[in-house]
Structures are given as C-alpha cells and as structure tokens.
Amino acid sequence: MFEKLFHTINQKIQLTKEDLEVIKPFFIARKIRRKQYLLQEGDVCKYTAFVEKGALHSYTIDEKGNEHVVQFALEAGWISDQYSLLTGEPSLYNIDAIEDSELLVITHTSFEEMLSKVPPMEKYFRLLLQNNMIALHRRLSASLSLSAEEKYTKMVNAYPTIIQRVPQHMIASYLGITPETLSRIRKQISTAK
C-alpha cells in the first residue's frame, strides 16, 4: 500500500529503509468509494490524504448550486484543506472521490510527530509546498491571461489521462468555463488533427 508514497518521496529526497519503516505507522490506510466524501463543507478537516490509487477533487458549491472545482488529486497526489486542518475552523470545501480510491491519510498531530522522528521529511514537504505555490501562481496567471482553449491544452499536456478519468463538467469547472465551451474546444481540437 505504501509503494506510490515511497516512490514519490524518493523522487525528491532519499530516505533509508529504516526511515520509510518509521513513517508507515503515522499513516492510516483508507478506501473510499466513488462519490464518497473525505471532507464536507462545514466540517473541520482532520486529515491530509495521499492518493495511492484513484482520483479525488476539492470544490465549493455556490448559492446557485454550481460546483467550482479547486483541485484534482490523482495517484501520487496530496489533497486536504490545510487552512481548516491547521486552524480547526470549518472547511469551505468538499473533497470527494471521482473514482473508487485508496488513500493514506495522516492527522496533523501524526504529521508533526513524523517530522520530528524523520527530519528529512521536513525537506520533502518544503519542496512539495514550493511546487504547490508555483503551480498555484501559474494557474492564477493562466486563468487571467490564457484563452479557454489554451487553458485546456495546457491541462491536457500536464495531465494526459485526466480527460478519460474525470467527467467533462468537472474539467470545465476547474478551467472556469462552461461544459458547452469545453465541448466546443474539444471538437475544434479533434477536427484540427
């Protein structure tokens, strides 16, 4: 169950086999079914989750009932509401499974204890945070300056399997466009090939 997590960690830092064994007990293996919540709006976030298998998404729902996708997490991705987790305040987000998923979840208390027992993990999470900040800034810049077609093409190039795994309305929401616009873009791209 820890293969993907260990592989992902070892891509950024090198841990000993002993370190990897120390890490294991801090995580809880959890399976969730498609459409099952990991977190619901109004609840306090209790975990950070690593996706060993499957796909999840984080989103808000506006007063009209429209879903606004903030993040996708496929295999080897992390997902949580860090603000709620760290402050204990109710979450503004929902996180649920797009596919049946296998997760490794860790509480904030276990996370802090793990970092104290395996100090190199501090570097791993610092690198992860840096990469997330860069991705967030790039996404913000893209949403302000790129056309809908450019945003779609950029996403498909970065995550080629996402189109087959994630419903079109969720992709449209993530890109900030309507499903009809996404459908038109996909048709234009397929006829241009």
UniProtKB/TrEMBL annotation:
PROSITE patterns: CNMP_BINDING_3 (PS50042). Pfam families: cNMP_binding. InterPro entries: cNMP-bd_dom, cNMP-bd_dom_sf, RmlC-like_jellyroll. This is Crp/Fnr family transcriptional regulator. Residues 5-115 form the Cyclic nucleotide-binding domain.
